[in-house]
Amino acid sequence: MTSSSISAFALCVVLASPAFAETYAAVSNTAMSITGDIELDETGITFENGEQVTFKERVGDRLTVDGKTVEAFVYSLAEPRDPVLLNGNRLCGAPVTYVASWETDDGSSTILAVFATPEAPQSDEDICASYTYE
Q1: d(Cα 59, Cα 99) in Å, to the nearest integer?
Q2: What is the sign of the dihedral through the CA atoms of 65, 115, 39 and 16?
Q3: CA 116: distance to chain centroid?
């Protein structure tokens, strides 16, 4: 094999590798009582009780929060749903269509916001629920 063939093969292996989810510890009261700790990656979220939501695609990289634009990951869900989570609580109270996450200003926490809107969110105006993690 030539070095370019080896490089191409290595790139294919890397691109085909599964994404590794990061674990986030629930710190807000809503997160501790509803979602628990979560695993989050670019394919979806796994909640503490094992329920999952799967992302369809990334639809944005910014969100206006409290009047200020923040860098965010905004995803549409493959299937709108409102899973039953800890203590029989629901994620939103309506089928979730979009999820956004971003870091707080000081970088110490991650906010996860869920939306039950027909269009991709541009701001925190239509948040159904939000949860804070470290």
Answers
A1: 10
A2: negative
A3: 14
